[in-house]
Specification:
This protein is α/β, with parallel strands linked by helices and about 350 residues long. About 40% of the residues lie in helices and about 15% in strands. The protein has two domains: about 250 residues, Malonyl-Coenzyme A Acyl Carrier Protein, domain 2 (3-Layer(aba) Sandwich), CATH 3.40.366.10; about 80 residues, Alpha-Beta Plaits (2-Layer Sandwich). It is globular and about 55 Å long.
Amino acid sequence: MSRRAVVLCPGRASYGKAQLGSLSALDATPSASELAQAVAAVDTRREAAGDLTVRGMDGAEKFRSAFLEGHNAAPLIFAVTAFEALRLDPELVDVVAVGGNSMGWYSALWAAGALDLEGAFELIGTMGAMTRDGVVGGQSIYPVVDDDWRPSPDRAVQVDRALRQVVEDGHAAGDSIRFGGLRVLWGDDAAIAALAEALPTVKLGKTEYPLRLLGNSAFHSQLMSNASTSGRQALAGLPLEAPRVPLIDGTGRQWRPLTTSTDSLLSYTLGHQVTETFDFAATVRVALREYAPDVIVALGPGESLGGAVAQVLIAEGWQGIHNRDDFLERQADDPIVISLARPDQASLVARVG
């Protein structure tokens, strides 16, 4: 009997050294034959343009910093995300809704059936190359949960106060992504430096915050307005369709199969989604409340979404999960957040071999 599943797609920075070789079984996977052909076509164009190829990056012996650049990372991440989605077994899971974090929204459009592979690669390649000529502003992360992953009002107030002060001082700054118990802040270079001074250093797990994301632009902010304008011009003819399963965007809005306006969906994708805060926590919250999934499948590369999803579960008190220990106990007994990067969890939702 299949279980109700919400599928979530990861964003930028989800592919790292540990993910090399994620596409090694692509050619040998019957369900992914169309994806293999699409990747080959993309790589032919990239090679002709002098760019690194998707398969070349994934098959490299050593991870290179160039793989993190947007025009390289975007198609690589999407290819791996799509491969994982195609491994899901419909006899084990019934996908009831799809969402994604940041760049993962583009992957979610494909996973929900609103774009075909060619259109998805076009969208992702075009938007991923928008910062090819240089980083625009930056991003910094700060936690608004405590060590047990429970919401921390004090830390949230600290972030609000720091942002207010930085803006009053004449800098451009704000919320870029609400990523579970982390707030990803955007700003111009001066603002990011000012936030580093204004926010007290805290440690969550092994990581110290505030933490600047090196190489990232001020995504989901007004500093990306030129990228939005360019995207609208370049992708005006993108072949969007109504999704086959409900999509949940970065505001918590649902795009349903029978009621979606493709013009509105394209406008959101190239407009609001690019220049305004992406609330991934709202995506997960709506998925829980509206679709009551048995499991949440957090697609790869890697496991970058697991902690953020867990922190939303804790904030919601979902099925008795009220802190980090509750979540870990549930994961050990009956996983609610499934990662295909973990073989024991993958076997619960995906085809084997």
